[in-house]
Amino acid sequence: MTSDVMATLAKWNETLVRDEDDTIAICFGLSVTLYFHNGHTAEKRRASLECFNEYEKLCGSSLRWHRVTANSSRFSPTAKLRNRDMSPYLLSSEWEQEELRDQAWAFYWHGGDHKDDASALKINAFGSPRMKAELHNSLSFIQMSFPILQFGDKLELFYEFVLRCCELLKPFHGYGGIALITSPDRGLVQSYSPDIAAFAFRYPGIEIDRPMSHKFAIQEGIKGGNWLTILSNHFVEKLDGSDNIIKKLEEPFVLESYNDGILVIAGTAPEVGDRNRNIDTPQYRKLAKVLRPIRIRYHPCVYPKGRFSEEGVFAEWMARFDE
How far is CA 260 from CA 38, 76, 141, 220, 242, in A? Predict the structure, then answer.
């Protein structure tokens, strides 16, 4: 990895947006989001637990705040916990009871100094209720983020972690790279939604990720690609197989297989780009062309203010790598 690439990563590792109370509203991290079906089943809850345990091994001691259950909006300090074992919650036999068929499971842990800080140390997951999964094939997700320099110049450790999680969870699809991460405080996010759009349109390689909003729009197709793109065999077949995919992408792209799909790696490091300085994202452009047949075309508004509050603008952003 070149010194220029490391300097770019270091810049984004240190970029923060704070409000007048010094709360971090926006930061940036090395992030992956995996979407999967049948989140209500014991198999997927166990796989999600194992992903959490894999994450916790890497940086669990730095997680300062947590909330568990889909109905909770209040964070508690992890310092008060006896342990960080999530199995009593995720593996409870109560999930099999009929009266819980319309309830989701969820958890959110992060490493901010303050409970409302945006933090690059973050693991956030949502399991769709059994009723919605069975009737509407509703997607569930897990989102995991690290500081951009967590792995130094050994970024292969990040995608090896992602590959392990794919083997556990067997996701339908997903993506990973440098992502804009917002505060868990919804009011603060709303206030800074114009800034989020400004970052998004200037730096095309940065992922804008709101999985609770995306999961309704991406049930039939993918949101798009980034440095890492996760495709189940369902999508690999739609693109005429992994051999055809890598033939079209060529070097420096790499394909790694897991037990239900592939991980597409767009070179040795993420691209960020900068439209104000005419810095392009050539690998992401090539990837977007190959993925075009399986990408969604429409997405509703994702923020209440700024450009992303306007109809059609987020769809425009999703197509940002197209020629």
Answer: 15, 36, 16, 17, 12
Q: What is the pLDDT of residue 4?
A: 84
Q: Backbone phi, then psi, for 268, in 5-degree steps? A: -80, -15
Burial label for 293, CB within 10 Å (0-12, 13-18, 19+), is exposed
205 has a pLDDT exceeding 90: yes
**CA proximity to 66, closest of 83, 42, 43, 47:** 83
Per-state percent for the chain, helix, strand, coil, to nearest 5: 40, 25, 35
Question: Under DSSP, is residue 302 helix (H, G, I), strand (E, B) or coil?
Answer: coil
As a whole number of angstroms, the distance between CA 268 and CA 4 comes to: 13
Interstrand relation of 173-182 and 207-208 (parallel, antiparallel or unpaired): parallel
CA 96 centroid distance within chain: 28
Instruction: Check residue 109 and report its DSSP letter.
Output: E
| Cα 42 to Cα 150: distance, rounded to the nearest angstrom | 32
Span 210-218, average pLDDT? 94
Report the Cα–Cα distance between both ends of the chain, in Å, rounded: 27
Q: In the chain, what are the domain boundaries?
A: 3-318
Residue type, 65: W
Q: Say if pTM beats, i.e. exceeds, 0.70.
A: yes
> What are the CA-CA distances from residue 94 to residues 40, 103, 138, 204 (Å)?
12, 11, 21, 44
